Amino acid sequence: MTNKQAAINVIKRLQRSAFQALLAGGCVRDMLLGRRAKDYDVATDAQPKDVIRLFKRTLKVGAKFGVVIVLVENRQVEVATFRTETGYADGRHPGSVEFATAAEDAGRRDFTINGMFYDPSKKKVIDYVNGQADLKSGIVRTIGKPAERFGEDYLRMLRAIRFSTQLGFAIESSTWSAVCGNAKKIAKISGERIAMELEGILIHPNRADGASMLIESGLAKVIFSGFAHEKAKSAISVLGQLRRKVDFALALACFFAGCETEFAVRSCRVLKLSRNKNKHIKFLLANRGKLLDEQMSLAALKKLLAQPYFWDLYEMQKTIQKAKGHGRKSIAALIALRKRINELGDVELQPEPLLNGHDLIRLGAVPGPALGQLAEEMYIAQLEGTLHTAQQAGRWAKKWLQKHKMIEE
User: Fold this and answer.
1) Is the distance from CB of 382 to CB of 351 less than 8 angstroms?
2) Number of neighbours of residue 226 by Cβ within 10 angstroms
3) Distance CA 35, CA 28 (A)
4) CA gap 3, 284 in Å, rounded
């Protein structure tokens, strides 16, 4: 059973029990655009207690706000009672919720293109907010006064840009003015919620336009304090050269391509990203430029190649070079590097060291920083192909210790 089939089954059950029940929000928008929807939400005049009574398997996590999750086979369907919301003191949570009609429920939603309903039984769109007209014209417009809609949830400013980016729609002028005028208030929203919207913007192929709106509106400067001027220009040009399909870490690293690594890493902390994502982004930014070194040693190349994010680094560097212009000439060093990598074949990138620390101590090395230096230099020689056996490594280590006057000749 698909998500859509599960939602329609819920609707039919509610309608058979004399309740009004409709598909609502983004799934209706996507259906009218001929796009595949991810989630199919149901809106109804049935109250939570009615929904819980009608369906055997439910989750009551949002019942006090009028939302019940209905479990249908292996699917979850969100069923929300038509409602109005008031008293957004914190710019996110309503102070009170009252059950209402479908028309009133549509009036509390964010954008006209998300405020439509659809009755699958009658195959009829129910549109109280002129969403179909804006959908046809390619416009993102708030329902009602923009300042009021954004005041209810400041994250909606980022959502406006995300929808504009993903759908290729223009943001209506008064809606855009309200985004710019309220940009400073995005600081009231949690980093995790901001990160989700930024991901939707930056992983989309139209990401350069999305980044441009983030910067022009002032939102980027508020989210990432100090992000402006040349840093911003670089972000747009680099993102414009990035391949179509990328993950969030690579896209975000490219967004910060014109910034110092320390600034970018510090800025990303506000997003509360996972440890792996932060590590990914830091690796990409800290290693910028290294792949352009045509004199890079074999050991250094192997060490980089062994990193899980190497090919993202290659992609980012290629994108940065393309953004600078000069056509194919700008990526000549990377083309040469790719050829060099291909010539390596299936060589082992991270072989076990020929000698371990205990072996080196038996040869006369003393525990401490010098031992670490010896082990590192010996491993580099191994990666370079100078050392192939433990015996060779032992002789090499003895010479190193004699050279550094750590054992008798």
Assistant:
1) yes
2) 11
3) 10
4) 38
Q: Tokens in use for 124?
A: 């009829």
Residues paired with residue 23 on neighbouring β-strands, in sequence order: 42, 118
Tens digit of each residue's pLDDT (9 = 90 or more) over 372-384: 999 988 889 988 8
> Measured between alpha carbons, how far is residue 39 from residues 7, 116, 399 in Å?
9, 15, 67
Give 188-218 pLDDT, tens digit per residue. 999 999 999 999 999 999 999 999 999 999 9
**Contacts with 223 (C-beta within 8 Å, 6 or more apart), sequence order:** 186, 187, 194, 198, 214, 270
Lay out the sheet containing 41-44: strands in order across.
Answer: 58-62, 67-72, 75-81, 41-44, 21-24, 117-119, 124-126
Tally DSSP H helices, then E strands, for the chain. 21, 11
Token pair listed for 401: 């210790």
Question: Residue 409: is its pLDDT beyond 60?
Answer: no
Quick one: tokens of 338?
């790719």
Of 9, 203, 222, 242, nearest to 121 by C-alpha is: 9
Which string of b and e fits 332-345 if b means at least 16 CB within 10 Å?
A: ebbeebeeebeeee
pLDDT at position 89 is 59
